[in-house]
């Protein structure tokens, strides 16, 4: 159950971090205004809370593993929201990152 919970938390964290960064980008770079930027800042704060709910107690491990989720999630976000078309190297790199996530987070460790 901890693995499923961890995956859900990673997905939620990705949604808030990537979505928050996208909102700030839209507010600043696309001139949509301070309301978008403020919503982005709030979403980025929520990302931090999601990350802190992971069952593993080691901040460095969580953040390192989340990096791989962020890479893959950013490509998915770009595809869904911005119409980005990743090439085979983008996809390969994202898959490598997700393998890294699995090794860092879910490899068996002595108690």
Task: Write a concise synopsis of the structure shown.
This protein is mainly alpha-helical and 111 residues long. It has helices spanning 2-29, 34-52, 59-82, 88-106. It starts with a helix and ends in a 5-residue tail after the last helix.
Structure description:
This protein is 81% helix and 0% strand. The protein is mainly alpha-helical. α1 packs antiparallel against α2. It is flat. The protein starts with a helix and ends in a 5-residue tail after the last helix.
Q: Which descriptors would you attach to this protein?
A:
about 110 residues; mainly alpha; 4 helices; about 0% strand
The succession of helices and strands, N to C, reads HHHH
Mean pLDDT over the residues: 95
Strand content range: under 5%
> N- to C-terminal separation?
17 Å
What structural class is derived from the secondary structure elements? mainly alpha
Largest sheet: none
* Residue windows where pLDDT falls under 50 for at least 5 positions: none
Which radius of gyration do the C-alpha atoms yield? 15 Å
Q: Total number of helical segments?
A: 4
Q: Overall 3D geometry?
A: flat
């Amino acid at each position: 159950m901890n693995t499923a919970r961890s995956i859900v938390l990673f997905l939620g964290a990705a949604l808030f971090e990537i979505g928050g960064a996208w909102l700030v980008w839209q507010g600043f770079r696309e001139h949509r205004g301070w309301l978008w930027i403020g919503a982005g800042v709030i979403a980025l704060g929520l990302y931090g809370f999601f990350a802190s709910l992971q069952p593993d107690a080691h901040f460095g491990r969580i953040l390192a593993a989340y990096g791989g989720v962020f890479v893959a999630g950013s490509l998915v976000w770009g595809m869904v929201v911005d119409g980005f078309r990743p090439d085979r190297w983008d996809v390969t790199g994202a898959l490598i990152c997700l393998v890294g996530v699995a090794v860092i987070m879910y490899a068996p460790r002595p108690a």
